[in-house]
Amino acid sequence: MKAAVLHNVGDERLEVRDDITTTPVGAGKVRIRIKATGVCHSDLSAMNGTIPVAVPAVLGHEGAGEVIEVGPGVTSLAEGDHVVVCWSPQCGACHDCVNGQPQLCMAYMINAFSDAHFQLGGNPMFGMAGAGTFAEELILLEQGAVRIDKDVPYDVASLLGCGVMTGVGAAINAARVEPGSSVVVFGCGGVGVSVIQGARIAGAATIVAVDMVDRKLEWAKQFGATHAVKPEDLAGVKQELTGGAGFDFGFEVVGRSETIKAAYDATRRGGTTVVVGVGRAEDMVSFSAFDLFYNEKNLRGTYYGSDNIRRDFPRLLDLWRGGRLDLEGMITRRLGLDDVNDAFASMAAGEVVRQVITFD
Ligand SMILES: NC(=O)c1ccc[n+]([C@@H]2O[C@H](COP(=O)([O-])OP(=O)(O)OC[C@H]3O[C@@H](n4cnc5c(N)ncnc54)[C@H](O)[C@@H]3O)[C@@H](O)[C@H]2O)c1
Ligand SMILES: [Zn+2]
Ligand SMILES: [Zn+2]
Predict the structure, then answer these.
(1) pTM of the complete model
(2) pLDDT for 132-152, tens place per residue?
(3) Of 192, 258, 262, 337, most Cβ neighbours within 10 A?
């Protein structure tokens, strides 16, 4: 079958091959025929070494498809089920799962680096984060496949798998954006636009989008931003909207120390700054010791939108069905797997919100 392979960290291109195979399905696992996969910035970050990946690897972690084979012992899924791929499955039984932070469940993390479900020339090959949705088929742990209703189009469903869950979850689960509050969002890609939608759903009165790219700012408004500015114009808008005090909630959705600091600085005293972007391990952010005390800001990260996957995927789909979460509009480009490298170029050039690769 066809799949897009990263041979070495640092490679600028994936190799699309048609001779990839998978292992047999195995106990507790399912085989999925991928129908659609979004292209997330984290795929690019796996290529450039920001996010660890065991190579060679099939990239892609934001997908949806159909269960075509079920391994021994699988109880929750059957052949023919439609599923969204979850790149960080939750066991439901560990300390984090039972204490209200299931997004931090590490029960299956080891599998992503120990179970190689793909094969290349007879050698084992990993899938990104235990997934690998840039492939016609993949093998997943049962816990990593979340069943959805069959009327949900696969392209729409695929977006839930990473960007939309992360962004909407950052606003609703992590920040707990309040009705009437003010919000600033740095970075208006697929994840940033999902933060904007989450803030709109939560009832924020003011949502300021920040990006360098004009077209991104137009899109941000389409998804609920009340104001959209270039980074250099933020100070003026902050002054105008908040009297200089800053926003109740600041979101960083880029993955760089400079924008993390900028989001923190744009947040008001006592407000909340959420780091959604994934930056490099060696990229250090510094804060004044006095500032941390004096301004009493809440600074936190969010992993996968601080999700509870089996609660949140159905909620996101309910919001979509109710016309309150625009998923179709986020898909600004559709392409085939052969054009995956072109997708990274378009993303880097700021020409798209989300691109979805579909398989016939
Ligand atoms: N927390 C998580 O679990 C999680 C999950 C998925 C993605 N992410 C991360 O979220 C980030 C965004 O992902 P995406 O797919 O939306 O990326 P994207 O490339 O589509 O969008 C990033 C946006 O940031 C803008 N940008 C770049 N530098 C900027 C700056 N200095 N100021 C303002 N805007 C700037 C770009 O123009 C672009 O519009 C990435 O770091 C990704 O790895 C995190
Ligand atoms: Zn767990
Ligand atoms: Zn992602």
Answers:
(1) 0.98
(2) 999 999 999 999 999 999 999
(3) 192
